[in-house]
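$ ./design --mode recover --in tokens.txt
reading tokens...
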């Protein structure tokens, strides 16, 4: 099933019309609009393939140029704005403009919304009497709104298992598979995994959609006991082919999903030996001859970036030049990937640019994303310096890299690694930070393509708001802030909304980490929100004001929300999210009325519901349950289910279980029941963020392959 939440459940870009999207994979995830930036044969741009006229069977191989979507949900119609590139003529649709800010927000927003954690932290108030766990005999007060283990194991899991035993409809089966995987297994006395066995059984399904969803679910489950199956599938070996029981090779999509899945297992395992084993298999795949389709190597490379190997751990095998030697520790993998970024033919780099473009971000994730502290010893500092210098060479004016996608990825990666420390000569990052800032500043002014300019603005916002170490740990903050404010004031076209969003990201991080945001930022954003009229810009202003918590702008946003008419639903949705982010409590009634009136406008419905969730409105869940039971359109079902799951309130569980079982007063469609399974999985998820957030945040969605993200919602970033 497709997932209609942006990278999950909220639409992130706007489209002027809605299109149907094929179902599949437990819900489809949407970000910006209904398309994805093209990849494959036409990576630099172009028009995304048209969406199917109605639900089709996802999971089967899809043809057409890959595009970059945003999140969707099961069986849903991708909704959202479909902005087109500026044109001198209004008579020709130039296709989606993939440089709009909405795409970035769609893929990166989850950590900023942080909705599930916010909802669950509010707890049950003293007068609440509606929370029932287990058998429902007595209201049991909880410290949070997170579903308890008793409710999950005694009510939700049996309902999902029953659906898998008795249902054949693809939407229900795939939704239940992904939901079980999100919930996660419990350790049994015999050491076996019930969920691994259940999910593995569906690898043999004749429908490719169900089979590949089972492979993906094994990764989402993130259980060490699923590793042998995932390795066999990715490598297409005899064991993997037996699991498929199809007498032939493991399909390319399934092999690619297994690579991503191994990374997800490696990300959560507590065993460094298991991390080494997984990394060795992924590197083996990267060293294989190039495939006609780069998806398998992209999956392996993305998976490798998720694994927090020990920095300098040794292993039993240490044979120079082997995959096992490279996989011994994180520093050796970083050295390996630094070589693979080399764009000069014959110098050891990845031949396919779509694979090569993933290497900078994989390096940055290994250096920056994991929470363990960087080891300040000579070898580690030297390796980090090698990575940074390689990235700086890639983005320099004299770079030998000719593919713009690789330059974009290097730009993103520099923002992930750098920080605001200006420091003294004894600080090993001091000079590196200055070099990174100057290059990003130059790129934001004079990059040859707009997308790289815009990515540079976001990269500056990230590095400039990240406190470093030493006596001048925040020394670059003021320089970054001034650069972004200049871009906001002087930027033309889309550069202004990108600068606004970058300032929102910058200010949000400062607020979260006891920094001091210059009042000039909130003043500038408030003035623009009050005076600018362009829909392309206004949504970015609303989100930015929400990110910095500028409640003084609430009245302005409410006035604009009331004034905006039909045809601009994506802007209205962004305003709703902005109000929720800034915790504008006075907006609850307005957002509730929008949800009630938006049965046939899924974009704004979904985002208004998210705004209500952010505001802690207790009426949101009952209202959405009522609407889901009555909804008949795919888009509405997807939007409602996505919003319910994203809010993650325990109060939704019993109603969703009844819907999945078909025990509601009004008969529900199979697709709607599938969406109920998706919502249960999101609500009871073992993690606070959607499983693919690890891959989507800071992804270069312009360096695309179909299994990463696609216009028909069947890529790894599109699945709820």
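writing sequence...
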């Amino acid at each position: 099933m497709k997932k209609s939440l942006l990278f999950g459940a909220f639409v992130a870009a706007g489209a002027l019309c809605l299109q149907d999207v094929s179902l599949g994979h437990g819900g489809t995830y949407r970000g910006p609009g209904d398309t994805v930036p093209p990849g494959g044969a036409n990576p630099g741009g172009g028009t995304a393939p048209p969406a199917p006229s109605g639900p089709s069977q996802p999971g089967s191989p899809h043809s057409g140029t890959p595009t970059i979507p945003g999140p969707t949900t099961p069986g849903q119609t991708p909704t959202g704005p479909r902005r087109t590139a500026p044109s001198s003529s209004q008579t020709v649709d130039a296709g989606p403009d993939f440089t709009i800010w909405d795409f970035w927000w769609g893929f990166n927003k989850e950590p900023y919304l942080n909705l599930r954690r916010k909802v669950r932290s509010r707890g049950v108030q003293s007068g609440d009497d509606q929370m029932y766990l287990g058998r429902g005999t007595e209201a049991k007060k909880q410290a949070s709104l997170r579903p308890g283990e008793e409710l999950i194991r005694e009510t939700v899991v049996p309902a999902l298992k029953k659906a898998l035993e008795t249902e054949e409809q693809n939407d229900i089966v795939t939704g239940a598979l992904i939901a079980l995987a999100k919930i996660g297994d419990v350790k049994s006395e015999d050491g076996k995994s019930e969920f691994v066995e259940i999910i593995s059984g569906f690898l043999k399904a004749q429908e490719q959609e169900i089979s590949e969803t089972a492979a993906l679910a094994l990764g989402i489950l993130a259980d060490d006991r699923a590793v042998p199956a995932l390795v066999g599938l990715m490598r297409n070996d005899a064991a993997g082919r037996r699991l498929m029981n199809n007498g032939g090779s493991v399909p390319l999509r399934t092999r690619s999903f297994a690579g991503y899945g191994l990374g997800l297992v490696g990300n959560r395992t507590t065993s460094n030996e298991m991390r080494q084993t997984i990394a060795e298999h992924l590197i083996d795949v990267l060293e294989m001859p190039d495939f006609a389709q780069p998806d398998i190597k992209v999956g392996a490379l993305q998976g490798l970036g998720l694994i927090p190997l020990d920095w300098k751990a040794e292993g039993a095998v240490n044979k120079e030049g082997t995959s096992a030697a490279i996989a011994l520790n994180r520093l050796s993998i970083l050295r390996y990937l630094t070589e693979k970024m080399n764009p000069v033919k014959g110098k050891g780099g990845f031949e396919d640019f779509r694979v090569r473009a993933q290497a900078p971000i994989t390096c940055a994730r290994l250096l920056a994303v994991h929470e363990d502290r960087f080891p300040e010893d000579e070898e580690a500092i030297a390796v980090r310096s090698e990575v940074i210098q390689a990235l700086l060479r890639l983005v320099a004016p004299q770079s030998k890299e000719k593919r713009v996608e690789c330059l974009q990825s290097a730009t993103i990666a520099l923002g992930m690694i750098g920080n605001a420390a200006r420091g003294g000569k004894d600080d090993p990052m001091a000079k590196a930070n200055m070099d990174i800032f100057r290059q990003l500043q130059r790129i934001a002014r004079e990059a040859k393509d707009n997308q790289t300019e815009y990515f540079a603005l976001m990269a500056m916002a990230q590095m400039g708001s990240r406190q470093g170490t030493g006596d001048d740990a925040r020394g670059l903050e003021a320089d970054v802030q001034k650069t972004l404010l200049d871009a906001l004031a002087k930027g033309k076209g889309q550069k202004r909304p990108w600068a606004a969003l970058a300032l929102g990201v910058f200010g949000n991080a400062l607020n979260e980490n006891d920094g001091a945001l210059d009042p000039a930022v909130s003043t500038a954003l408030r003035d623009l929100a009050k005076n600018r009229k362009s829909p392309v810009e206004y949504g970015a202003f609303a989100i930015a004001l929400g990110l910095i918590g500028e409640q003084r702008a609430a009245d302005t946003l409410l006035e604009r929300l009331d004034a905006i008419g039909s045809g601009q639903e994506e802007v209205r949705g962004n305003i709703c999210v902005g109000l929720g982010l800034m915790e504008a409590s006075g907006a609850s009634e307005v957002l509730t009325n929008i949800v009630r009136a938006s049965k046939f406008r899924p974009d704004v419905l979904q985002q208004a519901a998210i705004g209500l969730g952010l505001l802690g409105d207790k009426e949101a869940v009952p209202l959405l349950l009522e609407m889901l039971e009555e909804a008949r359109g795919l888009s509405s079902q997807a939007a409602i289910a996505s919003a319910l799951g994203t809010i993650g309130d325990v109060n939704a569980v019993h109603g969703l279980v009844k819907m999945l079982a078909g025990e509601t007063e009004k008969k529900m469609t199979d697709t709607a029941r599938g969406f109920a399974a998706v919502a249960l999985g999101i609500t009871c998820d073992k993690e606070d963020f959607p499983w693919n957030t690890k891959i989507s945040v800071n992804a270069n969605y312009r360096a695309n392959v179909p299994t990463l993200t696609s216009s028909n919602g069947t890529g790894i970033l599109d699945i709820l």
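exit 0
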